[in-house]
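Archive transcription. Copying these from loose printouts into the bound notebook so they stop getting lost. Printout 1 of 2:
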Amino acid sequence: MLATHVGAAAGIRFTAAAPFGSIAGELRGGRLWALELHPHPPAGAGDRPPAELAAALRRYLRDPAASWSLPLARRGTDFQRRVWAALRRIPAGRTMTYGELARRLGSGARAVAAACRANPVALIVPCHRVVARGGIGGYQGVRSGPEVELKRWLLSHEGALRAD
C-alpha cells in the first residue's frame, strides 16, 4: 500500500511497500527530490504516489534494466553530481568498485563512497552497484546489517549476484 503526505514546504511525500522493505520519496516542484530505500516495511498506509512515479517503480521491480525518465531536482556539489552521473552509466547486472570509479573520475575511493552515501535518489542513481574490492561493501553508511542485506537484494534482483 502506498501513502502520500503533502507538506507546505516539503512538497509531496510518499511511502510504498517493496519486496526488500519500503521506498520513501518526495517530489518538489514536479521533480523528484528524494527516493530512499529502507529495509523495513512502511509504518503506515494511505493514498498512492503520483502515477508516473508508481509506474516507474513497478517497472524497475519487474525489469531492473528499465530506464528512468523522471525529472530530478538538481542537488549536490559539482563532484557529487559527477559521481552520480557516472553511477547512472553502470548498467543493471553490473558492478564497479569504489576504486575503479574513483580512477575514472580522477578522485579517491573514499570521496566516491561519500558521494554515494549522499545520493538523494536511490535506484535512479544506482549507488548500490558500487562495491568494495573484496566484497559487497557497505550501504547507506553502514557495513553490516539490514541495509547491506538490502543492497544484496538489489544486486541479486539485477542479476549482479548469484542467489545462494
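Printout 2 of 2:
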Amino acid sequence: MSENNEFVLFWPEVPEIFKPLSYEHLSQAKCSFCNEALTEKMYLLEKSFHRDMHTKEISQQFEIFICRDCFTEINNAISEESKARMEQFQAQKMDTPYRRKLFESNYMNINRWLKYCAVTNKRIDLEEEFNIAGIFLGDTMLYDGLPMAISMEGLLQMDEVYSNKTRDVLDDFFSKLPPDILQKIKNSPLVLI
C-alpha cells in the first residue's frame, strides 16, 4: 500500500470477485485487526480461494481487511533486511511496469489483471489455491500496483523472502486477529505488499 495519498487512478466499479462475504456492502467493512470502520479509510482487502479441480467451482476461504494504520504498523515491524529482499523479489519476479501499462491501456477489464499469477505468471484458472488483493478507499477500488492474483506457489515464494525475525513479528501481529480469521489464515501466507 502506497505511503502517499496521490491516487489518481481508480476502478469505475468494484469487481464482483472483490465484493465482501462478511458484509453486505464494502461501506460496512471493518479492519480485521483494529475493528475500525473503513467507510472513509484506505485499506487492503485480501481474499483467499480454493478451486475444486474436478468441478472447477471456486469457494472463498477467507477475506481480511487491513486499514492503512494497521498496514503501516505491520510494515514497520518488518525488518529492513526483509523489506530489501522483498523489493528485490518484486523487481525480479513481478513485472510492475507491465502491470502499469496494462492499467493504462485497459484497466476496466479486471479479468486481465486476475488472469495470471503476479509472481509465477501461471494462469490462475488452473490453480487450486490462490489469493487476490486490492486497495480501497471506502467502496472505491484504487490502483496501487494492485489488484493482483497470486497462486499458492507465488505466495510461498514471497513468504520465503522474509527473515525468521520478520516471520516471528508477523506471527505475533497476526495472533491478534479474531480466532475465526486466525484459524482460516493459519496455513496460508498473505500478500501484504
